[in-house]
Amino acid sequence: MTPRTRIVLALGTAQTLAWASSYYLPAILAAPMARDLGLTTGWVYGAFSLALLVSAALGPAAGRRIDRLGGRDVLVLSNLIFAAGLLALAAAGGPVLLFAGWAVMGVGMAIGLYEAAFSTLAGIYGRDARGAITGITLLAGFASTVGWPLTALLEAELGWRWACVAWALLHLGLGLPLNRFLVPVGTQPAPPAAGPAAPATGRPGLDRSMVLLAFVFSAAWFTSTAMAAHLPRLLESAGASATAAIAAAALVGPAQVAGRLLEFGVLQRFHPLLSARLAAAAHPLGVVALLALGGPAASLFAVVHGAGNGILTIAKGTLPLVIFGAHGYGERQGVLMVPVRFAQAAAPFVFALLMERYGVWSLLLSAGLGVAAVAALLALDSSVATRRA
């Protein structure tokens, strides 16, 4: 096994654990948490939204730390913080500790999810990190596939509190050793000459390209978070039966992995802007099919949406690297993720309100955001991007 393969496997496994025990946790545990604490599920999702906001606030600082000193120790710290947050949730007796536990989880999410892993790889491989970034997203694409059934099993057998404890122990016994002993520290590439995309200070500038990328990623993750929260209901609104809607929604995960395999194989030969443009167009095309054909197109919509979302996850790591280069990559990722986390926090609530009034036609909002994202990506010139990198 080559060192590069070992690093990708270690980071991919650790990322699967991180996503499964944080971002994908409320889908299974929100109801039992709320029931046991005497709260509505809205309180639990509100606490989860707090975690996303904490992650947004701390992301740039975490990126700067990785840029200066490498990502290994930051990822190790994330395992400790995730474990602490999960143990706090397990001990919660009311809303105060519930919100405190999720706030701690937000710190872990700021320093332990894709942005930190991508920045670590940029520090190790520089501009050649695209393949490694794709590799870890291929593995971590199974986070919900692994995490949801495992969390449900733990909750059914031991209760939600012990499920949180079990995930905490996995961070200490699996995630921490993987990040500490199999991931090198990484070195930051030398800073480029001062320019509009990389000022003399080395800090990322908020130029036109940064604004366009921030919009693209915010639109994409608003849509993906809204779909994760409401997709079965949306498909039922389109005319699919409850069983067909759930079966179609289950195709999103495999479709994401298929999209990433497409990026890893065929699309890797092309500029990542092409991949991103095709991926951003996928959701609007799926919406057109679903609105035109109704329930029979439910599976087609889920597959097209999932594949596009899977490729955009990779683009979130590769586009900033290609456009701006590796220097300052970590902080730039943190800055780009600030509006993304706010969009994620708002998406389930906003889409729920729209669905109450418009049903499946709420998808016109997400389709419009997708079209606008394609336009923003078309405004990014690939020749300039290559020259800057």
TrEMBL record:
<dbReference type="InterPro" id="IPR020846">
    <property type="entry name" value="MFS_dom"/>
</dbReference>
<feature type="transmembrane region" description="Helical">
    <location>
        <begin position="132"/>
        <end position="154"/>
    </location>
</feature>
<feature type="transmembrane region" description="Helical">
    <location>
        <begin position="274"/>
        <end position="294"/>
    </location>
</feature>
<keyword id="KW-0812">Transmembrane</keyword>
<feature type="transmembrane region" description="Helical">
    <location>
        <begin position="99"/>
        <end position="125"/>
    </location>
</feature>
<feature type="domain" description="Major facilitator superfamily (MFS) profile">
    <location>
        <begin position="7"/>
        <end position="385"/>
    </location>
</feature>
<keyword id="KW-0472">Membrane</keyword>
<keyword id="KW-1003">Cell membrane</keyword>
<feature type="transmembrane region" description="Helical">
    <location>
        <begin position="300"/>
        <end position="323"/>
    </location>
</feature>
<dbReference type="InterPro" id="IPR036259">
    <property type="entry name" value="MFS_trans_sf"/>
</dbReference>
<feature type="transmembrane region" description="Helical">
    <location>
        <begin position="74"/>
        <end position="93"/>
    </location>
</feature>
<dbReference type="InterPro" id="IPR011701">
    <property type="entry name" value="MFS"/>
</dbReference>
<feature type="transmembrane region" description="Helical">
    <location>
        <begin position="211"/>
        <end position="232"/>
    </location>
</feature>
<dbReference type="Pfam" id="PF07690">
    <property type="entry name" value="MFS_1"/>
</dbReference>
<feature type="transmembrane region" description="Helical">
    <location>
        <begin position="238"/>
        <end position="262"/>
    </location>
</feature>
<dbReference type="InterPro" id="IPR050189">
    <property type="entry name" value="MFS_Efflux_Transporters"/>
</dbReference>
<feature type="transmembrane region" description="Helical">
    <location>
        <begin position="44"/>
        <end position="62"/>
    </location>
</feature>
<feature type="transmembrane region" description="Helical">
    <location>
        <begin position="360"/>
        <end position="380"/>
    </location>
</feature>
<keyword id="KW-1133">Transmembrane helix</keyword>
<protein>
    <submittedName>
        <fullName>MFS transporter</fullName>
    </submittedName>
</protein>
